[in-house]
Amino acid sequence: MAEMVVVGVDGTADSLGALRAAADLAQNSGASLVVVFVRHESPIVAESLGRGGAEYAMIETLDEEQNDARDRAAAALSGREVDWRFQVASGDPAAELITAARDEHAGAIVVGGRSHGIIGGLIVGSVAQKLIRHSPVSVLVVRDGQAQRLDAASTAWAV
Predict the structure, then answer these.
(1) For residue 73, which of 99, 107, 98, 110 has the smallest C-alpha distance?
(2) Which of 21, 41, 68, 137 has its CA 20 to 30 A from that of 29?
(3) SS (H, E, C) 108-132
(4) Domain-wise residue ranges, the chain
(5) What class is the 4-149 domain?
């Protein structure tokens, strides 16, 4: 295993589940964690708000989300035997997680997976989909806050 694991957090339960799984992975392999919060500042929204109070409110909200994600990450990792640091990036979450993985020479990226639509468990969120298609390193998508191992009986339908 590489010496570094990148994990994306946004303060949601899904991302905190991914953080716990990444901490387990790092702890078991002797790796360190880079916990990445991506400020997704949409240029279209910023332009439509113009300069003034609405733009300030958007920035203040992003600051609060960032601080909340940092606090939740620290709480989730307290008492763990793993080295970690919190990093903030701005832009497209998938692209920024890939950049962090490249910069850190990480062996894996871990993210939470959200189920969407009627099919539920078959379709993951857009960030996870982009990572799976474009990441140069392994991607672990954690569902329902847990990394789950599949046994032969539960994968009988798989090709």
Answers:
(1) 110
(2) 68
(3) EEEEEECCCCCCHHHCCCHHHHHHH
(4) 4-149
(5) alpha beta
